[in-house]
Structure formats: C-alpha cells, structure tokens
Amino acid sequence: MRWYQVKEQAAGIKRLMLMYHIYCIAGKKAVKFITFFVTFFAFIFAPQIRYYSKKYLHQVGVKPTLKNQFLHFLSYANILIDNMETFINKFNPANITFADEDTKNNFFNIVREKKGGFLISSHLGNIHVLRSFLSAEYNKYNVHVNIFLSETQCKIFNEFIRRIMLPQNDVTTYPVEQITIGTPIEIKEKIDRGELVFIAGDRVSETGSTVFGTEFLGRRVEFPLGTFTFAKLMDCPVFFIVLVKTDGDKYTVYLEKAPENQNEMQSAYVKFLEKLTRRYPLQFYHFYDIFVDGKTGDEDELH
Fold first, then answer.
1. Mean pLDDT of the chain
2. How far apart are CA 31 and CA 85, in angstroms?
3. What predicted TM-score, i.e. pTM, was given to this entire model?
4. Tens digits of per-residue pLDDT, 26-41?
5. Number of domains in the chain
6. Whole-angstrom distance, CA of residue 297 vs CA of residue 293
7. Which pLDDT value is given to residue 136?
8. Is residue 303 scored above 70 in pLDDT?
C-alpha cells in the first residue's frame, strides 16, 4: 500500500473546529488532554495503520509493542496541535534551535544575501513549525517561503487549517499534484529573487513519477527522483532539513548542505534521513508500507 492509498484518519472538520475553540478558551494543555483520548480511539479502530506502524518499528529497532505503536500515533497527533499553533501565529519561535551553529550561520548568510535556497524536507518530525521561525513577523530577513504540499492527502486537516489560518503574505503553497512543465521556471525566478523552496524527498508521487531505489533501514525503498532533479535544475544552494521535537514544545533543526552532484545528493539525503530516523524513531510519520523489496522474513512474528 502506498501513502496516497491510506484513508485519512481525522476527527472531522466540526470536531477539529471545536478543538480549536477549546484551545482559544482553555489553552494547549486542555487540547493535548483531549487529543490523548481521541488518539486512543483512533488507534483502536485503525488496525491496518497499526500494523504498518508495528512493521516499521520492528525494522527500525524499536520493540513493536502496543504501547510503542500508540506512542507513535500520539506523537503524530501532538505535532498537529503544534501545526495549528503555527498557522495562527501562536507557536513560540524561541522554542526552535539549531543542532549545528556553523550550518545555521551558512544558511542564514544565504538568506540574508538573498541568494535563495532549495530545502529538501521529509516526513520525519515537523517541518511546518519552521514557518514560525522564518515568518516575517519574527525575523529581520523578511524571506518569502514556497512550500510544496499534497492536496489530495489530509483534506480534512488542510481545510481546517485554511479556516483558522491568519493571512500570511510571506508563504505560498503549491500542490505537488499540479506541478507542470512551467513550475520549475516559476520557482527558479522566485529563488533568483532570494526566496526559499521546501519540498519533501521521501514520498513517491501518486502520478507515477520516476523514482530511485535505495536501501533504507536495512530494506529496499523508493524515493522520488523528481525532487532531486528539481533541486539540481534550480542551480542554487540545496539543503536537507529535519525538525524534530526534543523536549516539551521545543524543536531542534537538523540542517545539512547537500552535494552538488545529483547522485551524491540522493545518497547523502538517504543517509541523513536514516541517521535521524534511527535517533527519533517515533517521529517518522509514514503510516503505510514504505518497503518495496517484498521480504517476509521476520514479519510472521508481527502478526
């Protein structure tokens, strides 16, 4: 099963709006308390997704107990709360720190000098909270951000975000399903003006775009070749980026400069993502079967 075949597990737009109003009245702790029980019931009634979580945890080296599967679910639910805060400008950017100061300074020199940049993210951690840090409201660089997102997945949550989001002139979103032959030209013009572009490099396209096979967590997976071809075409600084939750509401940014050669870029990205996935296994949010090698092996003990 591919990621785009997984049915969205959401509480419904009315219930999400109710959670938002509870947040406005009672604060984040109250919403997290309620979210715990909502996640518990979602966990019970999602056996297929539980199985894929179990299979992934087994492969990454985490004991795939029911408790760890639930913590995997709950981790994802809690980052959605952080996303809500981000889109209404309530997430505190002071909670975001960088793991490496030298890479951070190199990156912000590029931002300050308006050179533009292409950042390859993933579904490890929560890239969306970086908007709080990069938003013109919080930093002096006034950088414009362009984000490629899936329009077909998470429709309910995306509609919820559209309803509560405050107007932001510093962010433009692009549906990955609507990339055309003219999109790279438009994005190149934006980068040349000093803008930043974010796109995930760890999920293949629903439209059947070209992929490259690689070993990841000891198994065979496929990643989208188009992301890295896109990055190479932009002829600009390329970075790999991951934001992971480290303590309470605090996030750490892992940033790495990508090699210029495309094959080396692809290999370096896989190593970067695998290293951090092993370090933060409960924050890898692929609730489907990412492995394509057809192995069965130890899977019998997962049933």
1. 88
2. 11
3. 0.91
4. 999 999 999 999 999 9
5. 1
6. 11
7. 54
8. no
- Answer whether 221's CB lies under 8 Å from 292's CB: yes
- One-letter amino acid at 133 equals F
Q: How remote is the C-alpha of 168 from its chain's centroid?
A: 20
Range of the domain at 83: 3-302
Q: Structure tokens of 182? A: 């003219």
114 touches 160 (CB < 8 A): no
SS (H, E, C) the chain: CCHHHCCCCCCCHHHHHHHHHHHHHHCHHHHHHHHHHHHHHHHHCCHHHHHHHHHHHHHHCCCCCHHHHHHHHHHHHHHHHHHHHHHCCCCCHHHEEECCHHHHHHHHHHHHCCCCEEEEECCEECHHHHHHHHCCCCCCCCCCEEEEECCCCCHHHHHHHHHHCCCCCCEEEEEHHHCCCCHHHHHHHHHHCCCEEEEECCCCCCCCCCEEEEEECCEEEEEEHHHHHHHHHCCCCEEEEEEEEEECCEEEEEEEECCCCHHHHHHHHHHHHHHHHHHCHHHECCCCCCECCCCCHHHHHHC
